[in-house]
Amino acid sequence: MNFETILFSIDAGIARLTLNRPERLNAFNERMHTEVAEALGRIETDGGVRVLLLTGSGRAFCAGQDLSERDVNAGPLDLGRTTAMYYNPLVRRLAGLKCPVVCAVNGVAAGAGVNIALACDLVLARRSAKFIQAFSAIGLIPDAGGTWVLPHLIGQARALGFTLTGGTLSSAQAEQWGLIWRAVEDEAFDAEVENLTAQLANAPTQGLGAAKRAIRGAWSATLEQQLALESQLQHDCGLTLDYKEGVNAFKARRTPRFQGR
Ligand code: T3D
What we know:
alpha/beta; Lyase 2-enoyl-coa Hydratase, Chain  A, domain 2; 2 domains; 6-stranded mixed sheet; 4-stranded mixed sheet; 10 helices; 10 strands; 47% helix; 16% strand
């Protein structure tokens, strides 16, 4: 497939997916959904990907749904169908990827753009970026997992305040509330994103993937279930080449060379 709405590459274990409709602040139209789904499919089947970097081109990360695609005067629209067809699978796939997913929020994130960022594992945002729960301004609810991830990350009071007021959060506030991993000064942002991505591309991928699965799974598990899952995943990690390499490197006092296997 020739991509029109995204930039996509896989190189040296790093998959880079850039939402690329800057004139629409990288809002999602149907074509973009299809292309992102195709790119995720390639990542899922390429055993060599060790980290995904998701970002946006231009001054925005993503303004959510492209509203120019919604002809609200032509008759009732079935938005339940569009969320089920496009946004829900996207969130599931980002959360379920076996490698870490870094989201570099390079500028404003609005509507589903916020919640897609929050579906990623590590969110770095430019200090000047903003997060806007734009849904209430057009009579909708936070989708793309927003009603689930917000109360889990920031608690009910803040989730409701942020959503019902259609509020805007600075990236510094988002970091302080625990919504994102880090807000980074604009001048340092690109370098910090690259450093983090390179670090993860050279990390023990299976171990990180298992840690991601366990931590994400903890939200709906009891302690007993979680302990059982940890035993199972630690069993699997203990059989990886990277575990062996990590322990050997520790004993030899050298830097480990992880292969993601
Ligand atoms: O439909 C379904 O399937 C249900 C799913 C819904 C998921 C959702 O995400 S619903 C929420 C949709 N998103 C929004 O409501 C956000 C709309 N955008 C904004 O509120 C503002 O654009 C921003 C706060 C994000 C940024 O404001 P600002 O002043 O920096 O930029 P701007 O001038 O508003 O936008 C620049 C251009 O991008 C402009 O086009 P123009 O006039 O230069 O030709 C604007 O129309 C366009 N744009 C921005 N957001 C969208 C968009 N065009 C289409 N859809 C957008 N969401």
